[in-house]
Structures are given as C-alpha cells and as structure tokens.
Amino acid sequence: MRKLETKTIVVASHNAGKIREIQDLIGPLGFTAKSAAELNFVEPDETGTTFEENAKIKALASAEASGLPALSDDSGLVIDALGGDPGVYTANWAETPDGTRDFAMAMQKVETALEKAGASKLEQRTARFVSVLCLAWPDGHTELFRGEVEGAVVWPPRGSQGFGYDPVFQPEGYETTFGEMSAEEKHGWKPGDAEALSHRARAFKIFVETCLEA
C-alpha cells in the first residue's frame, strides 16, 4: 500500500452533497482540498459496471488533470428485492430529461419497483449502501477502500438531512433514517474512533488507517 505524502488533494466529484461529506471527513486531518467541480474539470464517463471501476475512472481523471493525488467516491444503494438495483446506476435513476437529478423522483421510482416486487414489509426491503473510495496518483497508481452499511428501505421518506436516497434508508439497529440524522450522527466516526456508521465513513476509516497512519 502506498502512503499519501501530501496534504493537498483533489476531491474527484461534481456532486455537491458528496463533496461536502468528503470534505467533512478529511477536514479534521488537515487537508487542503478542492473539488473537480471547483477546478472546472470535465466529468468523465462512468462506463464501469462496478463501484470499483467507476471510482478509479473518476480519481484517475482528476489526478491526471491536476497533477495531484485525487480522492473519488463511487457509491450506491443496493436493494436485495430488486436484484441489486439501482446499484452502480443509483445516480442514473435520478436523472431527468434536462440532465439534472431529481432524488424525490428516484426514491419514488424505488418505491414503485419494490411494490411491483411485492416487497411491502420492512424485512422484505433489506438493502445496503456501498461506498468505494479510490485514491489515485498522477502516475496512475490507485488504492481502493470499500465500506458498506446494512439496512432497509422505508416509505414514506423521512428527514431532510443528507442527500440522495438518505430519507428512505434506515440503517440496521436504528429507528431513524440517514435523512433524519445530522452529519455527525450519520458518519458516527472521526479520526481516532474505533467504529463508523455510514458506508462512506467506513470506507474513509480504512483509507485513513491504510494510507495516512504510520
């Protein structure tokens, strides 16, 4: 595993919610970070069929464009009753004809699919959020870190915190959705903590332990 020697990196994302969460996680570690959106980098086509492949595509594009290490995240909601959908196409389910993303529409699309699948009870709606972080260097070297959190899809949506599908995801062992949790509650982790809650925080914890700690 290659250690990260610099505190200056690029967050390889154009998703405002994701950028905010990653910056919240790396901020306490003293990083100086700019996003691919701030730097006006063109979003690469995510042609991979796995979270790992798409995370690599995004991180490598920003590392090559900036000449700095870049950290990307590819994440999604994997629902058992839907055969793993929306999975790597989680963001695509929110796409509108004008190119914007409507997650209220996407959550309704998920609910309609679950109803069609006959999954009306909470125990039939098991799901997990998956996050794969990729740290890429300008020379093409990459490191991958995967985090998952088990839970279930609820309806109707609850809460206005977070972003994306957070209002319909209730993590295992909790009565509240990610949409009802503050950022601190959702991540459940900061550097030095033993446990993490969210998929992104779990992946980030592995990244810190692997690439930052001596």
UniProtKB/TrEMBL annotation:
<dbReference type="InterPro" id="IPR020922">
    <property type="entry name" value="dITP/XTP_pyrophosphatase"/>
</dbReference>
<keyword id="KW-0460">Magnesium</keyword>
<protein>
    <recommendedName>
        <fullName>dITP/XTP pyrophosphatase</fullName>
        <ecNumber>3.6.1.66</ecNumber>
    </recommendedName>
</protein>
<dbReference type="GO" id="GO:0009146">
    <property type="term" value="P:purine nucleoside triphosphate catabolic process"/>
</dbReference>
<feature type="binding site">
    <location>
        <begin position="163"/>
        <end position="166"/>
    </location>
    <ligand>
        <name>substrate</name>
    </ligand>
</feature>
<dbReference type="GO" id="GO:0000166">
    <property type="term" value="F:nucleotide binding"/>
</dbReference>
<comment type="subunit">
    <text>Homodimer.</text>
</comment>
<feature type="active site" description="Proton acceptor">
    <location>
        <position position="74"/>
    </location>
</feature>
<dbReference type="Pfam" id="PF01725">
    <property type="entry name" value="Ham1p_like"/>
</dbReference>
<feature type="binding site">
    <location>
        <position position="186"/>
    </location>
    <ligand>
        <name>substrate</name>
    </ligand>
</feature>
<comment type="similarity">
    <text>Belongs to the HAM1 NTPase family.</text>
</comment>
<dbReference type="InterPro" id="IPR029001">
    <property type="entry name" value="ITPase-like_fam"/>
</dbReference>
<dbReference type="GO" id="GO:0017111">
    <property type="term" value="F:ribonucleoside triphosphate phosphatase activity"/>
</dbReference>
<feature type="binding site">
    <location>
        <position position="74"/>
    </location>
    <ligand>
        <name>Mg(2+)</name>
    </ligand>
</feature>
<keyword id="KW-0479">Metal-binding</keyword>
<dbReference type="GO" id="GO:0005829">
    <property type="term" value="C:cytosol"/>
</dbReference>
<dbReference type="GO" id="GO:0035870">
    <property type="term" value="F:dITP diphosphatase activity"/>
</dbReference>
<dbReference type="GO" id="GO:0046872">
    <property type="term" value="F:metal ion binding"/>
</dbReference>
<keyword id="KW-0547">Nucleotide-binding</keyword>
<keyword id="KW-0378">Hydrolase</keyword>
<dbReference type="GO" id="GO:0036222">
    <property type="term" value="F:XTP diphosphatase activity"/>
</dbReference>
<dbReference type="GO" id="GO:0036220">
    <property type="term" value="F:ITP diphosphatase activity"/>
</dbReference>
<dbReference type="GO" id="GO:0009117">
    <property type="term" value="P:nucleotide metabolic process"/>
</dbReference>
<feature type="binding site">
    <location>
        <position position="75"/>
    </location>
    <ligand>
        <name>substrate</name>
    </ligand>
</feature>
<feature type="binding site">
    <location>
        <begin position="13"/>
        <end position="18"/>
    </location>
    <ligand>
        <name>substrate</name>
    </ligand>
</feature>
<keyword id="KW-0546">Nucleotide metabolism</keyword>
<feature type="binding site">
    <location>
        <position position="45"/>
    </location>
    <ligand>
        <name>Mg(2+)</name>
    </ligand>
</feature>
<dbReference type="InterPro" id="IPR002637">
    <property type="entry name" value="RdgB/HAM1"/>
</dbReference>
<comment type="function">
    <text>Pyrophosphatase that catalyzes the hydrolysis of nucleoside triphosphates to their monophosphate derivatives, with a high preference for the non-canonical purine nucleotides XTP (xanthosine triphosphate), dITP (deoxyinosine triphosphate) and ITP. Seems to function as a house-cleaning enzyme that removes non-canonical purine nucleotides from the nucleotide pool, thus preventing their incorporation into DNA/RNA and avoiding chromosomal lesions.</text>
</comment>
<feature type="binding site">
    <location>
        <begin position="199"/>
        <end position="200"/>
    </location>
    <ligand>
        <name>substrate</name>
    </ligand>
</feature>
